[in-house]
Amino acid sequence: MARLTLVRNKTEISATAAERITSLIEGAIAIRQAAAISLTGGHTPDQLYEFLADPDRPWGARIDWTRVHLFWGDERNVPPDHPESNFGLASRTLIQRVPVDASRVHRMRGELSGVDAGREYDVILRTRRNEISGPLFDVMLLGIGADAHIASIFPRACLSLRQTTFLFL
Question: Of 61, 75, 118, 135, whose Cβ has the fewest other Cβ atoms within 10 Å?
Fold first, then answer.
């Protein structure tokens, strides 16, 4: 079911998205004992990730990070410590601040060539697809780039994701 929520600013969208994501994670864990999120990068999700990692926020204690798998919908062709790395952003603002196990963090290796990184991530996603029933991702965050691109590394991925909730930031 589609839902349109209007907000006034980045802080409000970050709080609204954090609450919605928390509810979706809770629901997935209740059904399958695990949840999978496809993260985004760019300039929009930083505050959202900080909010999700903040134990003092209303949703802070509700996410069982030991049951969450983190994936990425796109990555820049840079090493993980580069300021433009989508993984680097998520690592600084979320991953290092929550108890998610490193084995559940499935990053794209942007330091490889685009072809090699894509092939490697394809194997990761196909392996995951074979290990689970239900949707590949419970939540897929999609940022919109300055040139209006969305998850440009996987342009057809959205067509095969059923029962996945997309949050455009």
Answer: 61
The whole-model pTM stands at: 0.86
Q: What is the pLDDT of residues 5-41, one digit of tens each?
A: 888 999 999 999 999 999 999 999 999 999 999 999 8
In degrees rounded to 5, what are phi and psi of residue 28? -65, -45
Cα Dmax for the chain: 41
The alpha-carbon radius of gyration of the chain (Å, integer) is 15
Query: What CA–CA distance (Å, rounded) separates 18 from 51?
Result: 7
- HSE-up of residue 136 (Cα within 13 Å, Cβ side): 21
The count of C-alpha atoms lying within 13 angstroms of the C-alpha of 72, restricted to the half-sphere facing its C-beta, is: 28
In the DSSP assignment, the letter for residue 105 is B
Among 58, 67, 86, 49, which residue's Cα sits nearest to residue 138?
Answer: 67
